[in-house]
Write a structure and sequence with these properties.
2 copies of one chain form a homodimer. Chain A has helices at residues 16-19, 27-37, 52-65, 83-91, 99-108, 116-119, 153-163, 185-198, 228-244; strands at residues 8-14, 41-48, 68-72, 95-97, 123-125, 129-131, 140-143, 146-149, 174-181, 203-209, 218-225, 249-251. Chain A has a 6-stranded mixed sheet, with helices on both faces. Chain A has a 4-stranded antiparallel sheet with strand order 10-11-9-12, with helices on one face. A two-stranded antiparallel ribbon of chain A has the order 4-5. The two termini of chain A are 26 Å apart. Chain A is of the alpha/beta class. The longest helix of chain A is centred in the last third of the chain and has 17 residues, at 228-244. Chain A is built from 9 helices and 12 strands. In chain A, strand 6 and strand 7 (140-143) form a beta hairpin. Chain A folds into 2 domains: 2-166, Molybdenum Cofactor Biosythetic Enzyme, Chain A, CATH 3.40.980.10; 174-251, 2-Layer Sandwich (Alpha-Beta Plaits). Helices cover 37% and strands 25% of the residues of chain A. The first copy, chain A, is elongated and about 75 Å long. Strand 2 of chain A pairs antiparallel with strand 2 of chain B.
């Protein structure tokens, strides 16, 4: 199984605004799709507030358990941006002004506007290397297997470009979607279970839709696996089985 | 400080579809806003896949650390719905058909359609009580301090209504938003830090906006605290200070 060789990753979302309900996080989904495209398995995500003990605890658990950890949030200029210090504490290293980060920020701001708060954004845990920020210049950083990125989605997404070449990739997971309309999950559950038993190397998911009251009700079946030929076979067999039961399906 | 008395909560999102990037989770945000309205502090969230060891590990860590844990996902009729069994394993109790759940499901489905898969949805860990599902009937359940709910957002949201009366509530956190346009976070960081030092009982957050390239750039300042009079005072003082610096603000 190529699964054995795929790198395993976790995401750590940092920010009171997510846990207070003020902000709907979208970074986890962006990173999930990014990692999927590289064949890296995202196995866990955590969200914590702007508290050093919480960040340190979660980060140390995740970086020990997974090949890569991606964090978002808390690297701006304000007092509630404590991620660099928390990451330094987690790794047991000092946090200092990074000359290259300082140079980048000095270029961005006119001398009168480059105040102490903005200068804080040049502070990086010792041993860290910068992650480029093509949107607002203030960099993220990598230390060990941890990639520390901004919380603003546009900036976070841009930073991923500089992260890509640093990652060991895996075989991509192939996905096939079967859309079953007019019947609920319960009507296809037994067929799906049988398919999963026959092909234990694949993952079979089932997601009902249409509870909003607007339009059709049905079930989306998802087949996932690294062996594309086997995924295609599973799709073929499952489609045939469902059609033989008189169930309408669309392959998407 | 009333903060001491506020219950603390965590959320556990269960589902491969979130970590694969297929689905953008919205349940965390819905639960976060629900808990905020009850004065319950949401302190952590985790997302794990449909794997029993992961669910058991995360659930046991969270239910030990927090007053309440809310889970979403994995309680449907298909083979990948393993939450009831995982919760039973976490609590060390058997999972059995719950007579009341069975009665609810028998009423919903015509005899010919009430198959083994659908009957699985009546299985609840011993000692659990049901959480009503007014959308599709298949219930969630509560066991100890853990509330197990559906992953489909419409159903999850409806289940929260039956959860509300079971929760100890806290003093609500009052929130004031100051929208600062035309200047970045770095320009207001020092003023904000000073305000936070003066009032350590409040939380001051800062969130830049406008990086999408469409329209105004600025910073949203958020003041949060359980003492409404102090939150109002902080808003007044911070507004005055920003205006004295010639910065445009709008209180929202």
């Amino acid at each position: 199984m190529t699964d054995q060789a795929a790198p395993a990753a976790a995401v750590l979302i940092i920010g009171d605004e997510i846990l207070s309900g003020r902000t709907q996080d979208t970074n986890l989904n962006t990173i999930a799709r990014f990692l999927a495209s590289l064949g890296i398995d995202l196995l866990e995500a955590r969200t914590v507030g702007d508290r050093q003990d919480q960040i340190v605890g979660a980060l140390n658990a995740l970086r020990e358990a997974y090949d890569y950890v991606f964090t978002t949030g808390g690297i701006g200029p304000t007092h509630d941006d404590i991620t660099a210090d928390a990451v330094g504490a987690a790794f047991g290293v000092a946090v200092r002004e990074h000359p290259e980060a300082l140079a980048v920020l000095e270029r961005r701001y006119p001398p009168g506007e480059f105040n102490a708060a903005r200068r804080r954004m040049a502070r990086i845990p010792e041993g860290g290397t910068l992650i480029a920020n093509p949107v607002t210049d203030a960099p993220g950083f990598q230390i060990g297997n941890v990639f520390v990125m901004a919380g603003v989605p546009k900036i976070m997404e841009a930073m991923l470009q500089d992260v890509t070449p640093r990652l060991r990739t895996g075989a991509v997971i192939h996905v096939r979607n079967l859309k079953v309309t007019g019947v609920g999950e319960g009507a296809v559950a037994e067929v799906l279970r049988a398919a999963a038993v026959v092909r234990p190397g694949l993952s079979f998911g089932s997601y009902p839709f249409g509870f909003g009251g607007d339009g059709e009700v049905g079930t989306q079946l998802v087949i996932r696996g690294r062996d594309e030929a086997e995924v295609d076979l599973a799709e073929h067999d499952l489609s045939q089985e469902l059609r033989s039961m008189g169930i309408d399906i669309a392959v998407t």
